[in-house]
Design a protein that fits this description.
CATH class of the largest domain: Mainly Alpha
Distance between the termini: 66 Å
Strand content: 5-15%
Helix content: 55-70%
Number of helices: 5
GO molecular function, one term: DNA-binding transcription factor activity
CATH topology of the largest domain: Arc Repressor Mutant, subunit A
Largest sheet: 3 strands, antiparallel
InterPro entries: ArsR-like_HTH, HTH_ArsR_DNA-bd_dom, WH-like_DNA-bd_sf, WH_DNA-bd_sf
Strand order of the largest sheet: 1-3-2
Protein name: Transcriptional regulator
Pfam families: HTH_20 (PF12840)
Structural class: alpha+beta
Number of strands: 3
CATH architecture of the largest domain: Orthogonal Bundle
Length: 109
């Protein structure tokens, strides 16, 4: 099954992992140590993030480091932007309506 960025960020643990490693790359043990769950469970979350191209694993000596690749989050931003534009247009129309309503009520006391 091909996962996408929306599936990756749907889980709060994965969002927290992204948040942590976006600050600085961390080795797998350091990431796992920040959560109250097994290292195996964290590894599964990281695997999903790797599949979705939000995390890259870099081998450095005997350690494996997780690095955030946040470019894929642009897909989420583009999806949200269409709704932001829609609601901004609706709010602008409401604002204009309220201004007109106020102007008309001031003309006819």
């Amino acid at each position: 099954m091909r996962r996408d960025v929306f599936q990756a960020i749907a889980d709060p643990t994965r969002r927290a992992i992204i948040q942590q490693i976006s600050q600085e790359p961390m080795n797998l043990n350091a990431v796992a140590g920040r959560f109250d769950m097994s290292r195996q469970a964290i590894s599964k979350h990281i695997q999903i993030l790797v599949e979705c191209e939000l995390v890259r694993i870099r081998q450095q000596g005997r350690e494996r480091f997780c690095e955030a690749q946040l470019e894929k989050l642009n897909e989420v931003d583009e999806w949200v932007a269409q709704y932001r534009r829609h609601w901004q247009g609706r709010l602008d129309a409401l604002s204009s309506y309220l201004v007109d309503l106020q102007a008309n009520s001031n003309k006819n006391p």
